[in-house]
Amino acid sequence: MSRKRGEHTSAAPHRGGSVDDLITRAHHAAVCVQDFVAARDFYVDVLGFRVEGEMDRRDEPALGTVVGLPGAVVRWAVLARDSFRLELFKYYAPAGRTEANRQCDAGYTHVAFEVRDVDEAYRRLTVAGHRTTAPPQILRGGRTKVIYLLAPEDSVVELIEFRDPVTSSGVSS
């Protein structure tokens, strides 16, 4: 059965504090970077995003309010790939930490994209000099094959291939 925009899909009655019935679709994830140009170019040139909007020295007071950093000044872009958006931020003020989060650190750790052939993706990326954490790995009892691609500043982009578990072999994690 197809879902209409704004249609509530939960069988449970609406509970106070839940907004699940108000969500219409996923829209974007955000990445904060130090080298804005390198990050933008990586997502555009390597992963096929297009620049939907970009502003330098964005400093409207409401931005600082919504991100909880009054006086924030950023370089900002929205990158689009199909119906997914990736928002890039480079904070001029205030200064933030510059070390990348590890996958075990609190907070969002990576963004993932489904690919048809993770082995071919890995081959192309490594031939071009891009780094991954490991060669493709078979996970979930053979149902997926995955690589973690390291974007500029070691932000992680997961490339995942969904496989037929009947014909797949390997060890699940």
Topology:
Elements: E1 28-32, H1 36-45, E2 50-58, H2 61-66, E3 73-81, E4 84-93, E5 110-114, H3 118-127, E6 131-132, E7 137-139, E8 144-150, E9 156-162
Uncertain parts: 168-173
* Net shape: globular
Query: Approximately what portion of the residues adopt beta-strand conformation?
Result: 25-35%
Q: Within the CATH hierarchy, at the fold level, what is the topology of the largest domain? A: 2,3-Dihydroxybiphenyl 1,2-Dioxygenase, domain 1
Q: What would you give as the CATH superfamily of the largest domain?
A: 2,3-Dihydroxybiphenyl 1,2-Dioxygenase, domain 1
Helix content: 10-25%
| Content-based structural category | alpha+beta
**Beta strand count:** 9
What order do the SSEs take from the amino end to the carboxyl end, as H and E? EHEHEEEHEEEE
Radius of gyration: 19 Å
Report the sheet with the most strands, covering strand number, pairing sense and barrel closure: 5 strands, mixed
Distance between the termini: 33 Å
Q: Give average pLDDT, whole number.
A: 89
> Can you tell me the number of structural domains?
2
SS field, number of helical segments: 3
CATH class of the largest domain: Alpha Beta
